[in-house]
Design goal:
Helix content of chain A: over 70%
Structural class of chain A: mainly alpha
Strand content of chain B: 15-25%
Mean pLDDT of chain B: 89
CATH topology of the largest domain in chain B: Spore Coat Polysaccharide Biosynthesis Protein SpsA, Chain A
Helix content of chain B: 40-55%
Oligomer: heterodimer
Number of strands of chain B: 12
Shape of chain B: globular
Shape of chain A: extended
Number of domains of chain B: 2
Largest sheet of chain B: 10 strands, mixed
Order of helices and strands of chain B: HEHEHEEEHEEHEEEHEHHEHHHHH
Strand order of the largest sheet of chain B: 3-4-5-2-1-6-11-8-12-7
Mean pLDDT of chain A: 90
Chain lengths: 374, 469
Amino acid sequence: MGSEILIYGYGLVCLSMLAFNIIYSVWLRSGPRRGARRVDRVAAAAGPGLAALESGSAPDSAHLTRMEALLARVNNLLAFDEYLQSLPAERAGAYLDGTAPIFTRLAGTYLRREETQGAYFCHFIAKWGRYLGRESRQLAAVISGFTHDRGLYSRVNALRAICALGEAEILMDTLLSMNQAAEEGIPIHEKIAVETLMAFNGDYEHLISLIWERFERFRPAAQRMLLDYIRFRSGGCRDEFLPILLDSRRDKELRLSAIRYFGRYPDERARAALLAFVSDPDQARWEYAAISASSLAAYPGDDTVDALSGAMHSPNWYVRYNSASSLERLGFSYEDLLGKAAFGDRYAREMLTYRLETRRLNAEREKSKEVVGA
Amino acid sequence: MSARDFVLNFLLAAEGFFILYMIGYASFLFLSVTVGSSELYAAKRRNTLKNELQDDYYLPVSIIVPAHNEGVTIEATIRSLLALEYNLYEIIVVDDGSTDDTAEIVRREFNMFRVDRPIQRRIACQPEKAIYETREWKVPIVLVSKQNGGKADALNMGINVCNYPYFLCIDADSVLQYDSLDKIVRPILEDPSTVAVGGAVRPCNGATIENGRVTRYRMPRNLLASMQVLEYDRSFLASRILFDKFNGNIIISGAFGLFMKNLVIAAGGYDHDTMGEDMELVVKLHVFCRETGRPYRIRYAPDAVCWTQVPEKLADLCKQRRRWHIGLFQSMMKHRQILANPKYGAVSFVSYLYFLLYELFSPYIEVLGIFTTLLAFAVDLINVPFMLLFFGIYVVYTAMLSLTAFFARIHTVDMKLYFSDMLKAVGLCAVEVSCLRFIMAWVRITALIGYRKKKNTWGRIERKTIEFK
């Protein structure tokens, strides 16, 4: 009897699976129709508000209440997004500007909802936030709540939304709270953070000044991310980067970031340090040498050529490779260097030969582009 | 004790064992398919609600294509790699002493020049014969022509040559979907402790792929290939999603896997002595990270898709599965310290145990089952109607789970499925479970006979030109 019960149990599982597959297939097929109906419903609801705005008056409170109730459902918010996309940008912008206060209230509503819905709300704000300027401060303050104790997508979408709203102060507070979360084991990948910051829609000079103000409150990984952001965004921070470059007690990654910065934005005050790094025979510090070798391409001069020629004999592959590349960028002929820098050193000769061939390959590529262009 | 008593006792013990074994298998299958399917449906909902990384965050990736006598498919494979919608990658083709025109085709079709490229040899591998490069395409392509040393050796050479911190290994007969690289790096961006990511490998027999996009999807005409489509969804897709839930995946298919280069080098690279170098590497990474106390994740990305040709001839399929079984045996033997070792947590008590009982030992257990049935029949202790009912429910149950996994995949990638294909899937899933599975069991039983002679050889199955437009 026991074994028969088992068999019937499995039979029941089979029937449930069958029913699920059939029902889901049918539901899936009706999906586009349901979506289109929802867009029509949202468009009909938004119509009077849009008409009022176009006639020069503000939407009445009944309209705002109705829209708030409607958009509190995430499927309607999806449909609203689709509807806005179908409008010319200025009409969509005018409607959002005219109804901006409801989005601050909706932020509070979605903050209490399950995480995926909250993350979608943040995505919506990130997409349309540029039209919600008059509510940006209040809205950004509520949205920063989506970065606490939440999953990655919620945090990233919230960060994107705050960047879209262009609120530097709130963004800095949010970054500090995310820094705290990272210390507790909930990190965010530096690449994502930097790319998101790059989309900051406000006064980035002000943001950078705030970063320097609060820089020491971040852990080293976050500091590195902030330095990367500044490197991509501004060449006006040489004075702030120089002490990091010169301070041997600083975290290695920060100093490497400073070396990269001075490669991108040359400053004579950094030359001596870069030359010292590239000439350092200590193999444990090869990363400093390798990155300095790249950065020195921006520092023409006999001392640079001598240092890079010397680095061509480094036992480290990357130091040799970067030195060869920089010498090339400084306009030196590999043929000359093969006789001079690589004399008697098989590794240096090999690397220079390879760089020479790489240049030939790049030239071939340019040639074939020209042929296609012609 | 009389002989009859002995037989009766044996049958009683066998009955208890098989009931437990079958309940274990049925429960695992149910769990993996429900968890796998739910995850696919949940991921679809998450994507609709933009719970995904939306900007282009490019991690630099080197794609390594080990090739041995792949003249038929290598050009299409490289062209598919050039069609990837990703900006920061390079392609490294390692020709492992091919005796056909593999290297010649690559050189000619991609206009490559010989270079004296210095190689930083951080993992031992056979020496190179020549290196060719080109910069004429969207991304740099490098061809390393080396002495024959086996697939693991070719991959190690690729690791030595590649420039970027992550490398992706693919088979030379595979085609990556246009967004696969973007999708496979996402788990690393989501969790920086991720050291390896496996992608979903799907049979491309029957699919039309244009610029890395599937424009038409049909079940393969070939019945054997169709059955493998169902098997891939049930056994690989669903179970890997389940294992992913507790960081327990111990296999990343050699056809499509992304790895952190420095960690692989520190762990010693691919093992030359193992036929299943892909599984061995993943098990080794588990061991290495746990032994060194490094926090790590090994992830599975079901939305990162690689299309591969599955064998259409039974003989080729047998060869492939024999190879897989030998690889499984070698990897599990080599890292047997994982078994029942609390240091390895769920990897030991769930993943390793599952592969041991339901993959490595299963063909032997299945033969024991047949032997027991015959013995019970001989001593007249079998209830034939019940046995048939049991077999019937086993076939229907497994087939239904196969179909659920199959439809979950189809529904969640918005593929249009023809009605005839649906019927084909329904019909073939029962055949796969009731016939093909037993043939494969026999293949796996005999796989270990004389396997030592096959060390360092490439598995060969008949290739067809991939229709990459």
